[in-house]
Design a protein that fits this description.
Blueprint lengths: L7 E7 L3 E7 L5 E8 L11 E2 L1 H21 L7 E7 L19 E2 L7 H11 L6 H4 L8 H4 L1
Parallel strand pairs: 1-5
Antiparallel strand pairs: 1-2, 2-3, 4-6
Length: 148
């Protein structure tokens, strides 16, 4: 099989401290990758935020960097047939419906600013596990809903 006939899979790994883009061959071996770190903001004790635009830019930079490396190995981006994404899941940000711009910094999954609200919800529900039969998880500061 010539290099131009090969197919590849891309993966965006957008995490708490960095974004990576990895390109895998059909055997699951990493062919090219690029990682971009970025900073957290700690406005108050227990608060963990990120600039949403910096998150997006870090993903874009990681993709471009990995594709440059991929191209230098003699491959074309068109050979990447699919891209999977793994991300921070419970990190939360709201966007302006008209402009598409973020309204605030993203509140990161491990931020605990809502601990008083969570205590109140647990008291009202009678148990932290009140909704576990529905969503499989206890009421906690981890979830996006209490951050909103």
């Amino acid at each position: 099989m010539s290099p131009s006939d090969q197919v590849f899979v891309g993966a965006i790994d957008q995490g708490t401290s960095s974004s990576r883009f990895l390109i895998f061959d059909v055997k699951g071996q990493i062919v090219a990758s690029h990682q971009v770190e970025y900073q957290n903001f700690y406005a108050k004790a227990g608060w963990v935020e990120k600039d949403p635009n910096e998150i997006l830019e870090s993903v874009e930079t990681a993709v471009v960097g990995a594709c440059r490396r991929f191209n230098s190995l003699g491959f074309e981006a068109s050979q990447i047939k699919t891209v999977g994404i793994t991300n921070q899941r419970e990190t939360t940000v709201a966007f302006d419906v008209e402009t598409g711009e973020p309204l605030t910094n993203a509140i990161i999954w491990n931020d605990v600013r809502t601990k008083e609200l969570v205590r109140k919800l647990i008291d009202e529900a009678g148990s932290a596990s009140r909704f576990a039969s529905i969503n499989g998880l206890p009421i906690t500061t981890y979830f996006s809903a209490v951050k909103m």
